[in-house]
Design brief:
This is WxcM-like protein. InterPro entries: QdtA_cupin_dom, RmlC-like_jellyroll, RmlC_Cupin_sf. It comes from Seonamhaeicola aphaedonensis. The chain is about 5% helix and about 45% strand. By secondary structure, the chain is mostly beta strands. The protein has one domain: Sandwich (Jelly Rolls), CATH 2.60.120.10. The chain has a 5-stranded antiparallel β-sheet with strand order 1-9-6-11-4, with no helix packed on it. A hairpin with a 6-residue loop joins β2 and β3.
């Protein structure tokens, strides 16, 4: 796996009435500053297409599935998220693209920072220059 990526096990409380996933401060290695989610994404669409200078993120497929293409400037890797008790921790400086969304999928993103356009690297060539 690319350095600075990690699959996080989301603690779950099992119950015959349905399971409960719990994300608390000790679940992830950063303070939560922002939570948002992607939904109703057409299967032919892609999301992401950027890297962050400072922000870290945890991505969870709370429903359905999608692929996350991660790129550290040298190696690209595809990770399929399809379990609500597994999250993909993406550190700073990693390019990500999300694609192949299943019908009804929801991608929950837990971030270490609030939205700051200055933190985004949205041009792939600029990303590669910064990585070299």
């Amino acid at each position: 796996m690319i350095d600075f990526l990690k699959i996080i096990d989301i603690p779950k409380v099992k119950d015959v009435r349905g399971n409960l996933g719990v994300v608390e401060l000790d679940t992830i290695p950063f303070e939560i500053k922002r939570v948002y989610y992607l939904f109703d994404v057409p299967s032919s669409a892609s999301r992401g297409g950027h890297a962050h200078k400072e922000q870290e993120e945890l991505l969870i497929a709370v429903s359905g599935s999608f692929d996350v293409i991660v790129d550290d400037g040298n190696v690209k890797q595809k990770i399929t998220l399809n379990k609500p008790d597994k999250g993909l921790m993406i550190s700073t400086g990693i390019w990500r693209e999300l694609e192949n969304f299943s019908s009804g999928s929801v991608c929950l993103v837990i971030a270490s920072g609030v939205f700051d356009e200055e933190d985004y690297i949205r041009d792939y060539n600029e990303f590669l220059k910064l990585k070299s």
